[in-house]
Amino acid sequence: MGTVPSVRAGDAPSAGAPGPVAPPGRLRHAGLLLTLLGAFHLLSGLTALGRPDYFAVGPGGLMALDYPVWGTVFALLGSVQLALGASLQRRRPRAAGAAVTVVMVAAIGQAGFFAAFPLWSALLIGLCVLTLHTLCASAR
């Protein structure tokens, strides 16, 4: 009878073995956060496109651009975040790299939109940071 080689903690994987993979729970958690963030960004974008008078300041009070441009940007970001979130929930780790980039762009965009809706922007920036943390912790 042959013996089965045992693997001890700390042993390096063999050359043909796959590298470390994030636990499925972390990818799913990151996907859920990204889906929530995408839904919020899509909601913000559609509101900026449909009802620019809803926000606290007029179009001249924004850091840059105007409401239709912000609405388009946030609607597109939200759509991409929803798609990436669905990919992460299906445990597709390759979506994590794109998700990190999209979330960073969204956080910077929220900083530019801060004057229009400060509390909402602050909450979404916080959710972006939490999502980034979860994505980066999943990459270990």
UniProtKB/TrEMBL annotation:
Keywords: Membrane, Transmembrane, Transmembrane helix
Protein name per its UniProtKB record: DUF7144 domain-containing protein
TM helices/strands, residue ranges: 30-49, 69-88, 95-113, 119-139
Keyword Metal-binding: no
Annotated coiled-coil segments of the chain: none
Residues in DUF7144 domain copies: 29-139
Membrane as UniProt keyword: yes
Chain intervals with Low complexity compositional bias: 9-19
Name of a matching Pfam family: DUF7144
Chain spans, region Disordered: 1-22
